[in-house]
């Protein structure tokens, strides 16, 4: 999509107040080219008091071997950046060179750089990720755990090189306030881990100079974020993260006259956005489970750091966080799998755990188990991970041991405000069947940036293993064809009409006309459980089509009957897609197929069309792909029933489950 087309589409989704605000932002950017509004010189910091310690002494109880291995790889110049593992970037790296494409971003005013243009900056996700400085925290943790000076020296060298290569306000690392905010969070952790204001790194004339240089950068970061908050249709998780960075920095370094104002502003923003961006029943409105994880992590970290400094958050804020945890717990099956609904970018706010098999969702539930004394969250989390050990220390470990784990006898089955509904049986056991149905809005605000065209899709797991899955995300700013496929209707377990998506794509993070989903019925307590809903995305067609889906689940027989009704007058091409997890072996037979997992079997029958077309790693047509990690994909089996309908038509699919 051309830059002009993208701008026209973006303008379509703006109201008058947003247009006026963006004009002011444009004027602000133009003025900054001549120095207006920039920090001419950072004021001298007052280090009479800095933030209280919020990191525990957990070195004796964490996986030090894994931590040291990660730190040693960084010092050896081997970096993990999304799909590129063990990448030789050197130490320190070239911060303005995209490690994926080799493109060197221009060194001019950051706000004048179009970071969306691959020809200018390369793949911006790969360029930004190392500069979030999670690896700085890795080195600081390794120093704290081992006492080896080379890790602390490496942390200093990493920072000095970044200051040298990324001078305020020039370059691509001075474009996005969210990137600055995440960097500030990691700087706060590293500062404390390295010894705070009294660190040995700050001793002597050179140490004093280094300390002042770091503090000047902190001030510049805060000033930048304060001037460039994400507003209006961009006020999603980016705004929350920006408030997080400003709050943490102003609590950790209350060193300037503006610090108190920054902290008060950020606190008010966090309190308001926690309630605005998340429904009362615990669903993040971006309709992307990984972004729910990120927002929850921000909320937990801000409360943890604030509480350590006598500035915890309100009961309403914490109540909303607890509801968010309940939704994650409801989605998680007995094997710990969470459906990959909506976008995911693999981001962590800070990395404190290196042990094998670490799960961000289990980690969040462990944090919430401690915070809210919830035995059901403890059961889902399974164990106390290293991240929580660094945050809560021996006291947290003792409270964890004292907390009795509770089963999942009565899980939350309906999230009507968020738009998700569950069917199933034997929850939390090896006989579990868990069905998660998406009857939610497309996404948040006018652009719905991180939503997927997945209305009335559902995922299915049995015996703790995924059978029918959501294929994930794969790409963001680059590889448009793949970006569009993974968020398309065809990439979800639902019905596609005339080769169209339910909602109309307007750009990489933008949707134009959006499907509306509506609940018609949900009866999870009946002998035969029922979900019924409809979505109107195809009513925009010349001959409008209304899609209604009913799912009947008989837990006594482990049988689902899926009835898709397409109300219309004319003729339409219809495709019914089913995506099987990569652990499934799938074979088709006439009008049926079977899928074998490790502990379960699925038999599917449907009389529509000529029987299932099985796509495996197909590019024409696209299908048979899953992305478990950002920028990585692998083949799965996608079954497609295709046919032509004339007028209102009902398509019945029967799914029978057998558990080992």
Automatic annotation (TrEMBL):
Compartments (UniProt record):
Periplasm
User: Where do the Heparin-sulfate lyase N-terminal domain residues begin and end?
Assistant: 106-348
Source species, domain of life: Bacteria
Q: Which UniProt keywords apply?
A: Lyase, Periplasm, Signal
UniProt xrefs under Gene3D superfamilies: 2.70.98.70, Chondroitin AC/alginate lyase (1.50.10.100)
Kindly list the GO molecular function terms attached to this UniProt entry: lyase activity
Q: Does the keyword Ribosomal protein apply?
A: no
Q: Name one Pfam family in it.
A: Hepar_II_III_C
The record ties this protein, via SUPFAM superfamilies, to: Chondroitin AC/alginate lyase
What range(s) does the Heparinase II/III-like C-terminal domain occupy? 410-648
For this protein, the record's PANTHER family field holds: HEPARIN-SULFATE LYASE
Q: What is this protein called?
A: Alginate lyase family protein
Source species, please?
Pseudoduganella chitinolytica
């Amino acid at each position: 999509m051309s830059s002009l087309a993208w701008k026209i589409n973006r303008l379509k989704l703006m109201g008058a107040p947003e247009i006026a605000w963006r004009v002011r932002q444009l004027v602000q950017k133009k003025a900054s080219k001549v120095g207006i509004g920039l920090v001419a010189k950072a004021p001298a910091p007052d280090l009479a008091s800095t933030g209280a310690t919020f990191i525990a002494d957990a070195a004796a109880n964490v996986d030090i071997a894994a931590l040291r291995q990660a730190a040693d790889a960084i010092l050896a110049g081997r970096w993990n950046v999304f799909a590129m593992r063990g990448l030789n970037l050197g130490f320190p790296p070239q911060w303005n060179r995209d490690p994926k494409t080799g493109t060197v971003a221009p060194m001019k005013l950051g706000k004048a750089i179009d970071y969306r243009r691959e020809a200018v900056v390369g793949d911006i996700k790969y360029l930004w990720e190392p500069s979030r400085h999670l690896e700085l925290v890795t080195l600081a943790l390794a120093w704290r755990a081992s006492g080896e000076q080379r890790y602390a020296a490496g942390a200093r060298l990493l920072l000095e090189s970044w200051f040298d290569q990324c001078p305020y306000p020039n370059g691509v690392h001075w474009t996005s306030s969210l990137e600055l905010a995440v960097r500030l969070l990691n700087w706060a952790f590293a500062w404390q881990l390295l010894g705070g204001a009294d660190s040995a790194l700050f001793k002597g004339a050179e140490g004093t100079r280094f300390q002042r240089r770091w503090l000047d950068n902190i001030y510049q970061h805060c000033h930048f974020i304060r001037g460039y908050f994400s507003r209006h249709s961009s006020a999603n998780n980016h705004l929350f993260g920006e408030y997080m960075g400003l709050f943490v920095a102003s609590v950790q370094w209350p060193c300037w006259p503006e610090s108190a104002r920054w902290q008060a502003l950020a606190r008010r923003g966090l309190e308001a956005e926690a309630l605005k961006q998340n429904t009362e029943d615990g669903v993040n409105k971006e309709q992307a489970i990984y972004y729910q994880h990120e927002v929850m992590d921000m909320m937990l970290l801000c409360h943890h750091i604030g509480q350590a400094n006598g500035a915890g958050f309100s009961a309403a804020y914490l109540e909303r966080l607890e509801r968010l945890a309940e939704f994650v717990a409801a989605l998680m099956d007995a094997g710990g799998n969470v459906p990959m609904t909506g976008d995911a970018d693999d981001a962590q706010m800070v990395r404190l755990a290196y042990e094998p098999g670490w799960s961000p969702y289990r980690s969040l539930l462990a944090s919430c188990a401690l915070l809210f004394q919830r035995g059901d969250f403890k059961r889902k989390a399974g164990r106390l991970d290293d991240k929580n050990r660094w945050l809560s220390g021996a006291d947290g470990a003792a409270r964890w041991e004292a907390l009795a784990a509770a089963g999942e006898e009565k899980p939350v089955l309906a999230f009507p405000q968020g738009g998700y509904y569950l069917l199933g049986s034997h929850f939390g056991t090896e006989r579990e069947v868990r069905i998660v149905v998406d009857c939610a809005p497309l996404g948040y605000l006018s652009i719905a940036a991180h939503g997927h065209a997945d209305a009335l899709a559902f995922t299915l797991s049995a015996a703790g293993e995924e059978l029918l899955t959501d294929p994930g995300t794969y790409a963001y700013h680059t590889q448009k064809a793949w970006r569009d496929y993974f968020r398309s209707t065809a990439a979800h377990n639902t019905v596609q009409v005339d080769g169209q998506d339910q909602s109309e794509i307007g750009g990489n993070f933008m949707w134009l006309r959006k499907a509306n989903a509506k609940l018609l019925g949900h009866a999870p307590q009946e002998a035969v459980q029922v979900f019924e809903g409809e979505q109107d995305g195809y009513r925009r067609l010349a001959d409008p089509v209304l899609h209604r889906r009913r799912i009947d689940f008989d837990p006594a027989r482990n049988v689902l009957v899926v009835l898709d009704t397409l109300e219309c007058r004319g003729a339409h091409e219809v495709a019914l897609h089913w995506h099987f997890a990569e652990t499934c072996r799938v074979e088709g037979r006439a009008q049926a197929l079977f899928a074998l997992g490790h502990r379960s079997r699925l038999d599917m029958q449907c009389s529509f069309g000529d029987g299932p077309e099985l796509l495996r790693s197909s590019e024409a047509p696209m299908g048979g792909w899953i992305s478990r990690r950002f920028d990585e994909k692998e083949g799965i089996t996608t079954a497609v029933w295709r046919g032509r309908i004339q007028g209102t038509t009902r398509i019945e699919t029967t799914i029978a489950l057998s558990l080992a």
